[in-house]
Design goal:
alpha+beta, 7 strands, 7-stranded mixed sheet, Methane Monooxygenase Hydroxylase, Chain G, domain 1, Beta Polymerase, domain 2
Length: 345
């Protein structure tokens, strides 16, 4: 934990404990050239920026502060950027530092075990280079790497700003995947509430609402981030790229609308669940009330003839017992028919 009052730019890793090795991958490309170096051994041999090409350095792992500090020192990264990189709980944002644009986003994707993985992705955009820092090995950027390898589309013809757009676009696209999964869960919960709600149902609804709150915290600021990139006046983001960034902005707005829709649906499901419980309780109380209403007069009759007075005319009557039973049966049947005619049964 970083001590209060520490000097600006003090690097202290505040994320979860990690034990994997930091891995560096360098991609250098232009329209007719592509070179990829995996597991870069010596960062001091790297030349960023490259004079006539676009370079992308991807750093996987930020838990070894001294290594990250060495990378930042060699690549001339602003100390405040390095401080934020080592603190992986940053709000998604875009900030300018001299001739570098610093972008923070939350990368959400489904892991191999089916669980949702969440981590901070930090992107530093320079004139002809990108430096990305992520917490864990594995990411969502393989489609971009493959497009760079095969030279598909216009990605090799564009600059580093287009590469930053491509990375952000992939991050946002995976938000759609997660929301589609959440939408299926909401539909299943809706059917469950309508058919046979239980205590587990309301727990599942509460969990889904907490998930949306987490997504909301991670995704809402992305709209502001992309908007700031579109309005950038530093020259790092060219006008051609802003056209594509506007498409990302539209996708983020769609995702936010979906989140709000799902949140409203879950709130409605909570109300529906409570109404369902109330209805079931009312039905039980109705049945008990009807049963009580039928047996009250029968109890009255039985109570009257259960008294032990010496002079009771019916006590000496030969058919008194059968007559009382007959009256009780007729009374019970009459009340039952009456309740059925009123549709109370």
């Amino acid at each position: 934990m970083k001590k209060p009052g520490s000097a600006p730019g003090t690097m202290v890793y505040t994320g979860r404990e990690r034990d994997h090795d930091i891995r560096l991958t360098l991609i250098d490309y232009k329209e007719n050239h592509f070179e990829e170096v995996v597991d870069v051994d010596d960062i001091w041999q790297m030349r960023l920026p490259s004079p006539d090409s676009v370079s992308w350095l991807d750093v996987s792992g930020i838990h070894e502060v001294e290594v990250i500090k060495e990378i930042g020192h060699h690549l001339n990264i602003h100390p405040l950027i390095m401080e934020d990189i080592a603190s992986p709980n940053q709000r998604p944002k875009m900030e300018m530092f001299d001739d570098q644009m610093y972008i923070v986003a939350r990368m959400l994707h489904v892991g191999d075990d089916g669980a949702i993985q969440e981590e901070q992705i930090s992107i530093i955009l320079g004139k002809s280079y990108i430096i990305s820092f992520q917490e864990l090995p594995g990411d969502v950027f393989d489609p971009v790497r493959e497009r760079l390898r095969v030279g598909k589309g216009i990605i090799r013809k564009m600059g580093a700003d287009y590469l930053a757009y491509a990375l952000l676009d992939l991050i946002v696209d995976f938000y759609f995947v997660l929301l589609e999964r959440l939408g299926t869960e909401v539909e299943d919960l809706e059917l469950e509430v309508m058919d046979d709600p239980s205590k587990q149902t309301i727990r599942s609804i509460r969990t889904a609402k907490q998930t949306i709150i987490g997504y909301r915290k991670d995704i809402w600021p992305v709209r502001e981030l992309v908007s700031a990139m579109i309005r950038d006046e530093s020259g790092l983001v060219r006008k051609k790229t802003t056209t594509y960034l506007r498409d990302v902005y539209d996708h983020v707005v769609q995702i936010i609308d979906l989140m709000e829709t799902y949140r409203d649906q879950l709130s409605g499901l909570t109300d529906l669940y409570l109404s369902s419980l109330s209805q079931r309780m009312n039905e039980v109380m109705q049945v008990l009330t009807i049963i009580g209403s039928i047996f009250i007069p029968l109890t009255f009759i039985a109570g009257v003839y259960g008294m032990n007075f010496a002079v009771m005319p019916e006590l000496s009557w030969e058919y008194g017992y059968a007559a009382v039973w007959g009256i009780m049966i007729i009374t019970g049947i009459s009340l039952t028919l009456f309740f059925k005619r009123r549709n109370w049964l």
